[in-house]
Amino acid sequence: MIRAILLISCLDQKGITAAVTDWVFKHGGNILHAAQHIDEKMGIFFMRIEWDMHGFSLERQDMRQVFSSEAERFQMNWSLYFSDEMTNIALFVSKHYHCLYDLMFRYQSGQLPHCKVLLIISNHPEAASLAKQWGIEFLHIPVMAESKSSAEDIQLEALKVRKIGLIVLARYHQILTGKFVRAYPEQIINIHHSFLPAFIGGSPYAQAYDKGVKIIGATSHYVIEALDQGPIIEQDTVRIDHRYSVQDLIDEGQDLERRVLYRAVRWHLEHKILCYSNKTVIFD
Amino acid sequence: MIRAILLISCLDQKGITAAVTDWVFKHGGNILHAAQHIDEKMGIFFMRIEWDMHGFSLERQDMRQVFSSEAERFQMNWSLYFSDEMTNIALFVSKHYHCLYDLMFRYQSGQLPHCKVLLIISNHPEAASLAKQWGIEFLHIPVMAESKSSAEDIQLEALKVRKIGLIVLARYHQILTGKFVRAYPEQIINIHHSFLPAFIGGSPYAQAYDKGVKIIGATSHYVIEALDQGPIIEQDTVRIDHRYSVQDLIDEGQDLERRVLYRAVRWHLEHKILCYSNKTVIFD
Amino acid sequence: MIRAILLISCLDQKGITAAVTDWVFKHGGNILHAAQHIDEKMGIFFMRIEWDMHGFSLERQDMRQVFSSEAERFQMNWSLYFSDEMTNIALFVSKHYHCLYDLMFRYQSGQLPHCKVLLIISNHPEAASLAKQWGIEFLHIPVMAESKSSAEDIQLEALKVRKIGLIVLARYHQILTGKFVRAYPEQIINIHHSFLPAFIGGSPYAQAYDKGVKIIGATSHYVIEALDQGPIIEQDTVRIDHRYSVQDLIDEGQDLERRVLYRAVRWHLEHKILCYSNKTVIFD
Amino acid sequence: MIRAILLISCLDQKGITAAVTDWVFKHGGNILHAAQHIDEKMGIFFMRIEWDMHGFSLERQDMRQVFSSEAERFQMNWSLYFSDEMTNIALFVSKHYHCLYDLMFRYQSGQLPHCKVLLIISNHPEAASLAKQWGIEFLHIPVMAESKSSAEDIQLEALKVRKIGLIVLARYHQILTGKFVRAYPEQIINIHHSFLPAFIGGSPYAQAYDKGVKIIGATSHYVIEALDQGPIIEQDTVRIDHRYSVQDLIDEGQDLERRVLYRAVRWHLEHKILCYSNKTVIFD
Question: How far is Cα A264 from Cα A247, in angstroms, rounded to an integer?
Fold first, then answer.
């Protein structure tokens, strides 16, 4: 079954839900999921609607144009996706491989929908053998303080050539420049190994240890130019106690990081995320 | 603001969402929340839609009739509620008062919406002073094995007279007869102090202790004739370890029971629960 | 059964555990609990040992002196408690009463061991009727920016007269001065309604809402002069989503705050907490 | 650093802790961890003590004999382990590989201490390529209803030859016979994909779906002859809702199963588990 997914946001007005569901219905679409959210404080309306394309009366290439007039009426921001359009993924990694491993296992098990993992990029050479084992192309692109700009140029060219639509920083320990980030708005997902906004920056587990917290967390977010400040997609926490060393926190945190990153990537691929005001709406 | 809430279930068909949202819109309703769910295995459609009655073109007394024709087209089961219609509540309790205390605190703080707590019924006299302190009517109705039927007759009469719409068993340690249960279908909420279906029946914490589980739970559910078998509304769990005595489990469990029961009662009052196939859909 | 509890910390050395357990044993004490912890990074040893006083060969008044020689050998910091010595508690509150309510319910149910709640102090008059209902003395001590110092003098005098050993800030929305804090080192427990160190200071739920976090938390800690920076005793978290308004966070957070504060108070009363390096060891 | 670990259980008596810690101390051992637990209901004492062997005055081969006289005095059950003694592990698997994958990743990352994974056994051939990739010996031993006994003979022989000390059923979907189970008491760890004692036996996720629970769980336990009834080592749970299909539960549960099994295996290898009365004490 091919499914169409429409994501919408606009100022809240009477009749939006009715207009959209009616538009789908009158063209023969069977609605599979429809969810809406209103930010009452800001007066913004959000909607995600998913329907079966079987029997839909519009050709795919005409849909955007036809829907445009509907959208203009409510001054909508909107995106239209189809479940058979694959998102090409590049995974960035440095020296910790648990997130990479986890995503690749899930990818190979069919748990990452509608995507192709095309590329693994690392500033270290060690992941090459893993990539080879999985049959994924691997690029070792060293990044030095003085060569970051040229390294990013090589990365950007590699991403462009392969039509990458989603970059996953699966514990990639380099700060991306504004140029890079702006090239992939809401298309770069990072995993930060703390419960943001606590413990921004380097060595968050050591920070957590020194602070003596009783719970640690992990956070996946879209990358923006301000470090660790992008819209939060998912978080999770786990209880610890005074007996945990920094290394114990690192070990325990692996599990958190893996599942928090996995969920964020999956929801992105399922087109369940809408960003606004540096926050996210996650339709479920 | 007065809100209307419509709960719908029927066989899944094309066009239901569009028909319902369009019906609300064309009568001038501003949709505040709309959520749907499809049980794909059973082919059943569920919907909850909530709108502002301000400017709605139908009078309240006419709405049910007008919507009926819409509903018949899809052979819907449906219910219509208004946010200014209060549900009258009776709280049943035996000898543990933490759930009673918690619900009353929340009620007095305004956290239990659209309801009036009219009555506390207990098979023991001890809660009388609490009831008095809160200004709630109290009935001490002893229940003996041989007098259960006549005790229930007294209870049922008291509920009927006060037009009670929701009975909350806030740790009431008597098994209700089929006659009683059938009189209030999907209107009796119980809190069971275990993670059902584990540890059905009496002394679940002692059962959990003997089994050596590492996590305990609590479950709120609608009461049906089969003991502890009704549709589950909410559950929660907490980690324990071998150091916990049965008494420690009882203490720790209080917290679980309170919040699990509170959520169930609240969702019921907000008309967020639909039952089918001995399960619940909880709209959020 | 009367129990003695000995809390010890010192530089880690060979033979401490043996020396302490042997000391208890040779005076006829039956050890009920013994736990130790070593901070390997800092080389510090911590111990909590609890034994039955029945048949113990030393009189209570002699124990401190006799143990001193043992303690000097290892240069221990140590404290000795007895289970029949009550801690006098004062509860401070402003305008949110859920923590106060919860602690009082637990106190009256016998869940707060070895203590007497003697006093409720508030900068607002509203809690007077609650205090009266529970039969607890109530002092309304208004605090204005310009009168804080004199208000604290009144508070301190009231605490001193009643031999208060533990001050619980059960949502008390005034910042204590250094003078006050220094008078009760490791004897003031606060509940902060966020997952510290995130969202320090005022309106943490509003801060959490604006940040778009997917989980909220609560933190209980000993009060030191730096705001919300004292040693963390306990934390807990709960999952939220984009549908939660600030008010929803406040409601949901109540539950967190109550149980996080309760645990901290209970552990303090059970002499299970040792502070060092602005962190806590919690023996269990 | 080589560490000795002593696990003890016996009837609770005065002086045990002192005797054991003193025994370690007088032979020159520096105690790194010491924890005890008393089951007050049954009057049983449990202890785990771990010390640095550097400078210990007894040779390893003499320790057992020397400690025996101490142990006899209290009629202890006891076991002595050394941190440089490797446990040989065999992993059993059928057709779901997430637990296998996870354990192997952790093993290769150094997170499974004091062990060697020597063997993967499966009743299906598919895992052969994974085993090859990791460089672990693989045995495909088909199990049919009529050939189970002879299949187990082959398995038992393979385990014996390789001196396997721990068998991990990493989603192995065959019920072991009493003969097999009795050959490895407290040496077989299973992962069951439900919150036991709920949903014993086959297809627990389908059972959970049909029951409409709001939380699912996973349980690791030692295997005894009664199916899914052995002492529980670890459990964990995760929240679900009515939108989850059985397949969603299976996906979500993977994460639970992996970490619950990992913790059990790790604690076993660290000699942190003591069994009694079909329950476990987990020292931490």
Answer: 26
